[in-house]
Amino acid sequence: YTYGKSVEGEATVTVYPTYYSGLLQPIFQNPVRKVVPINGKIAVEFDIAKDLKLGDEYERSVQIDVAVEEALTGRRQNTTFEVMLHRYKYKMEMIKTSEYFKPGLKCTVFVKLVYHDGSPVQDPNNAVTIRYGFTYDQNLYVEERHKLSKDGLIELNFYPPIDANQTVLGIEAEYLDLKEWFSTVSSALSPSNTFIQAVLVTQNPTVNQDIELDVNCTEPMKYFNYQVIGRGDVVVANTVQVYNKKTHRLRFLATYAMAPTAHVVVYYMREDGEVVADAIDIELDGTLQNFVNINVKPTETNPGGNVEMTVEAKPNSYVGLLGIDQSVLLLKSGNDITKEIVAEELKSYDKGSEAQFWPPMMNFRGKRSLYWWPGSATARQKYENSGAVILTNGLVHEYFPQGAGQGFGLIAQNRPPFRPIPAPGVPVVKPDLGPPVVYQPATRPPLAGPYAFSRIPTPVWNKPRVFLMHDIASTWLFTNLSSGFKRIDKLAPDTITSWVITGFSVDPLYGLGLSDHQEKVFRPFFISLDLPYSVLRGEIVAIPIVVFNYMTKDVVADVTLENEQLENFEFAEISNDVNEQPKLELYRRKRVTVKANSGSSVSL
Predict the structure, then answer these.
(1) Taking Cα atoms as reference points, which of 556, 215, 264, 300 lies closest to residue 387?
(2) What is the pLDDT of residues 294-333, one digit of tens each?
(3) Where in this chain does the record put each Alpha-2-macroglobulin domain (predicted)?
(4) How far is CA 174 from CA 90, 111, 140, 168, 237, in A?
């Protein structure tokens, strides 16, 4: 139940494998059912070989249907989920820090060995065999053995040679009886085979803290430029003199304008006019400047009991509190402001491409090396994935594979085919020969919605629609505050449930802040009525009443249904005798024995 106690009843578990067939007559197998008693939780076992008649040749999906019937009321609820059967009890995955490696610069790859539930494999005795090579020929691979960390990770650092012929990195891994061949890592592309790389050094990037990056290059640089792009705007742009060095540590302050994702682009121009660039995406913590803290005492109370809430936020903030019954949230959520909704809204202003490797990487954010830069093979893709547009008369390398519809292997950005490229020794071409560049700003167009510089026209049909609802769920809290500290005393509603209390704060200077809390309203002895939605006049209806006893001893309870007004209903006599003069009853009472930590039902 929503107040934390377990449901007692009967569970029907049905299991059957999923078949995929191209035949007109589908393949069918009789499902396997088991009916077991349940008291909040039960474990049901099925033999895969005997019951489901499945082997271990390959992975299979199994459908599981569960229906639970409550013993006290007879109500049934069901759910369906799918379970994948695997041949091995563990799996290996390769986590790339970049989709492409750069010849002459460090390339880091992680091999993750976990169980299928996501927990890491911890084995200090058996090592993992790694074979790798910068070739497609597996006979030329180099073999190494590595021990697993406590997180089930193996960090592999490769230093690809500066060779135009080394275009691919192949990796194989073997642990006990499991052997995996991972997808290859391709080489980045550059006409001069020159690359620059930005690596994040700061372990937990946070707003209002310095961010450190290591900028590495395959040749000495006189200078390099860097830009930090956040929410579609260039927040920081600067030039750093490095005086013929290959490595430099860059530091800048992270601001709220860069959150939640800061795109850092570093680049410089060679003497022959080629633009050498790299980009890295940094996920910043502390997206919201404002805050709101909710402290509730006590965390569990009786219906009608006093609840003391203390709210803290920035001074002069406008604070809103909302308390919702957890049973309402189980029907449908999404009626409140969450941090995920705020993050998605902020990301909608970002013109860059979202990185593809974040979901599995979020579990291992403790290691700084797991922050990655977007997978881009050329300099032009670096700018595009960061949401930037470069206007230059230099060579921004672009590559179209043969057969991709272009028909040309190497062209420069903003320069159509058959346009001359700079001759050797000439740094630039004439800018008036280039075509016009179409620039798409991040500003939303008119009539796009309730955002900056946009509006929605008044609808033609402005007559309001009225919807009537019955038994509207009560809202416990709906309070507005404006000071930095506030104490609120409220009475808990007369509902046996858990209340989810959420709050937000809004300030003209510090913006939005969010918080949530849970309050449980509970008493050890109470009754629950299962009333129908509606009844017809003259109809006989039985009202089931459930008496719950969560005390340490058995209780004999008298359940009384009163009818003092004698106008709303009459007590029905369940018999074959016809009484011309119905008996007037002011109440009807039944006695029931309720065991400790259990419930009993009775109907009137």
Answers:
(1) 264
(2) 888 887 777 778 888 888 888 888 888 888 877 777 777 7
(3) 475-561
(4) 12, 11, 17, 20, 46
- Answer for the pair 316, 507: CB distance below 8 angstroms, yes or no: yes
**pLDDT confidence of residue 10:** 94
Phi, psi of 466 (to 5 degrees): -110, 125
> Three-state DSSP class for 170?
strand
Q: Which residue has the tokens 């509970």?
A: 522
DSSP-derived 3-state class of residue 331: helix
pTM > 0.70: yes or no? no
On whether the CB atoms of residues 393 and 431 are closer than 8 A, the answer is: yes
Structure tokens at 89: 């009890």
Candidates 521, 499, 546; CA nearest to 303 is 521
Non-local (6+) Cβ contacts of 125 within 8 A are none
Q: Encode burial over 298-330: b for 16+ CB neighbours within 10 A, e otherwise.
A: eeebeeeeebebebbbbeebebbbbbbbbebee
Alpha-carbon distance 513 to 507, whole Å? Answer: 9
Q: Report whether 244 contacts 221 (CB < 8 A).
A: yes
What would the two tokens of residue 591 be?
């006695």
Q: Averaged over 26-45, what is the pLDDT?
A: 87
User: What token pair was written down for 182?
Assistant: 């991972």
pLDDT, mean of residues 541-547: 85
Nearest partner of 546 among 525, 560, 523, 529, judged by Cα: 529
Region 579-600 average pLDDT:
79
CA 29: distance to chain centroid? 36
